[in-house]
Amino acid sequence: MNYLQLLHQSIIASVLAGNEILDVYNTKFDVEYKDDKSPVTLADKKADDKIREHLQEFNIPFLSEEGHHPDFEIRKHWSKLWIVDPLDGTKEFIKRNGEFTVNIALVENNSPTLGVIFSPVFKDIYFAAKDIGAFKINGSIFSNYMHDIKNVSLELLFSLAQKLPIIIDRKNYVVVASRSHISKETFQHIESLKLIHKQVDIVTTGSSIKMCWVAEGIADEYPRFGLTMEWDTAAGQAILTESNALLIDLETQLPMIYNRAKLLNTWFMAKRG
Predict the structure, then answer these.
(1) What are 63-75's pLDDT values in tens digits?
(2) In this structure, are strands 101-108 and 80-88 parallel, antiparallel, or unpaired?
(3) 165 DSSP 8-state letter
(4) What whole-number distance in Å separates Cα of residue 160 and Cα of residue 25?
(5) 3-state SS assignment for residue 137
(6) CA-CA distance, 53 to 9, in Å (whole number)?
(7) Of 2, 119, 132, 203, which sits with the fewest C-beta atoms within 10 Å of its C-beta?
(8) Can you give the CATH number for the domain in which 58 is found?
(9) Is the distance from CB of 268 to CB of 247 less than 8 angstroms?
C-alpha cells in the first residue's frame, strides 16, 4: 500500500471538496432533512461528488455519509475502504460559524490507517498515515498553496507542516466539547475530572476539529457521550493514533473499529496517552 500516494491524493481531494463547500456557503442555500432528521445541503452532495472523482482511481470502495450505504453482507468482504464525511458539521455550516470539516479516511482490516481533515473556512489541514506520522499545516500558510493544490507536491506539503503533537507543555487539563451536542453525561464527566486535576478548562468547537485539537495537544481529551457515525470519527482516529493519542470505544475499552454491521458508533473518548 503506497500511503504517500494515497495521502497526497486525499489532501488534494479534501481541498477541492472544500472549494465546492465554500461555493455553496457563500450563497443563500437550502437545507433538506434526512429520515433521521439530520440536515443536508447541496454542499454535502457536491463535496461528496468531488471526493469520489479524485479517489476513484484507486479502485477502493466508498462508505460516505452521502450516498448509498451497501449492506454489511457486501461490506464485510472489503479489506479496505474509504470512509468519508464530505461535510462534517452541517449544523455549524448552516449556522455559518466556520466550524465544519472535510473528513477522508482509509480503513484497512477495520482500522483507520490514513486520515485527512480539512477546514475550508479556517484553511487548517491535518493529515496522517500509518507509520508516517500526523501533521498540521496552519491555515495562514496553507491558504497560499490551495489555489493550485493539484500541482503542490507532497514533499512541499511536508516541509510546510508541523508534526503532531505541537503543544506538549501545558499545566492545565483541557477538555474539548461539542458546540452543538454537549450532553449531561459530558458535564458530569467534566465535574469528576475537577476532583482529579487542579485546573480543568473547557473549550468548545464543532465537527472533527475536536479530535484534531487533542492530536495537536491543545486539549487532553474529547469525551463523546452521544451519537456519532463511523464517518464522523475514522479520519480523526487515524490522526490521533499517529500523534500518539487514542480514540477508545467506551464499550470495549479498545480502539474503535470500523466497517461494522452497525455504522452507529458507541460512546467514545479521544485522549492523549
Answers:
(1) 999 988 999 999 9
(2) antiparallel
(3) P
(4) 27
(5) strand
(6) 11
(7) 2
(8) 3.30.540.10
(9) yes
